[in-house]
Amino acid sequence: MSRRTLATLLAAVVTVVFVCLAGAGLLVGGSAAGCGPGGTADPSLAPAQTRGWPAVGRWDRNQVANAAAIATVGASKGVPTRGWVIAVATAMQESTLRNLSGGDRDSVGLFQQRPSQGWGTVAQLLDPTYAAGRFYAKLLTIPGWQSMPLTEAAQRVQVSAYPDAYAKWEPQATQLVGMITSGESSLPTGRLASCGGASGSWTQPVLAPVGSGFRTAGRPGHDGVDLSAPRGTVIRAASTGIVSRVRCNAIDNRDGSNWGCDRDGDPKLTSGCGWYVDIDHDGGIITRYCHMDEPPRVEVGDRVVVGEPIGVVGSTGHSSGPHLHFEVHANGDASAEAAIDPVLFMINLGAPLG
Ligand SMILES: [Zn+2]
């Protein structure tokens, strides 16, 4: 990306952040309503915050800048955060988040859009802001895109020869968008998350501090987060969906026998989730709620709505004390492979944990 393009982009980012913050300040709890064009700049944000982008994980500074551009355009157009993740995942697949000057046939840019197919001129499509804008414009014409699996929504926009290739980027796109738009971030885009969520379709399963995090250095096999709520705290469905699993999973490590869920588990002697529930949501998202104190209040096949009580906090299964172990999985895959970071995921959905 040229210096000029980068400068233009940073200016656009700052404008949107200003607009968003100004709007959010007027609305208790923040709202997408404050994120559209036309707001007032917040003078408290210093221009120094527009300095360059850091590398994030496997993504270098340029790639992160491009992801930030995509998220920023989404915020400025009022696209829900799910759309930002779909767009970033698509660009990961199409261009590895690089603004390519060429590609297959006449494809160019982040999304490998083709001038011959009416997407725009080569010069326009090499402008990340324009390219992302065209992606979103098409996405928003697809009925039900927010409830489709990511790969299907992306394919409907891109009409790719490899329609299944987008799915594998969902965890990384979720993570990258979460990192560059969350309030934890010191980047210019660090408050964008408050622009794209707050749709009311997701909520915290319990309001409690985050204890042990997702796949930390000390616990790389920890596929969820621990929310430190007292025993008996009501656990709520994080979003509307269908209950797909209700089970007691508590194994006695000494002989492989059933430990049972009628008593607390032990951090050394017991393995498993204890009493737990899986809920299938739109878009191939699955949420899991572990270590419930007593049999869950729902059954397989039940439709639950966002915020509906499904059980209470306990310490059954592999647990050292009462807490909710909460997991999020993508691609309709309940296995550990498809687990994504619930903290970043919930930030993206406007219902931050902790
Ligand atoms: Zn846990």
Automatic annotation (TrEMBL):
InterPro entries: Cell_wall_metabolism_enzyme, Dup_hybrid_motif, M23ase_b-sheet_dom. Pfam families: Peptidase_M23. The lineage of its organism: Bacteria, Bacillati, Actinomycetota, Actinomycetes, Micromonosporales. Residues 221-334 form the M23ase beta-sheet core domain. It comes from the Bacteria. It comes from Micromonospora lupini str. Lupac 08. Coiled coil: none annotated. This is Peptidase M23. Gene3D superfamilies: Glucose Permease (Domain IIA). One of its GO terms (molecular function) is metalloendopeptidase activity. PROSITE patterns: PROKAR_LIPOPROTEIN (PS51257).
